[in-house]
């Protein structure tokens, strides 16, 4: 496991670590390893390292952004072969990304799995609150990215911003891949990109689910995603999410035997983490 970037972010005590790209299953494993190491080292020094999406409601949230590209025989097949493509990506890339965008409301049940996730996914917070995509638009939940070295007009990957550190990366990435496969099978195409702040266009754009209950409702209606992921898995996810949305600080008190005073951030974080392991 290796990193490509480590730098301070805009929130109080907030840092961003970018893990190097690798195959999907390895990327999911590496994310878990990184989170466990960071937590353990912080606790060893008497500190709390939290990946809670919105640790402080008056500060910037924390995501777990994912960059997706497609490769075949070692070649990037997401990118267009030349600059003549409409969006700088191949037909395969566009159809895959269109599938992810189409299923995004349902995907939030996997990528934003706790009630606190929706405190983060708000307009004007760089998290992506509307169903749209953009070119290098940090207010879109999905944006195409062109890292240094990529020719002008070519897109090498896309980023999913509506993804946080409480998601099970294996299940969430499986759902993303299934959504992309559906896009390929149905030859979906992308709408026009949103280049401005989506909140300016709020009357014209669909709002993404504003609560865990709404994302679970979207998943319950998404028969295509269920067919690809399997009924048993989707039923399990819906059941766990419906239970989780009822968890409050008062439930944390009773389950941990904490005195009636509000739990410390570390106690609350550990309680949330304990119910995030399975799904």
TrEMBL record:
Protein name: Uncharacterized protein
Organism: Smallanthus sonchifolius
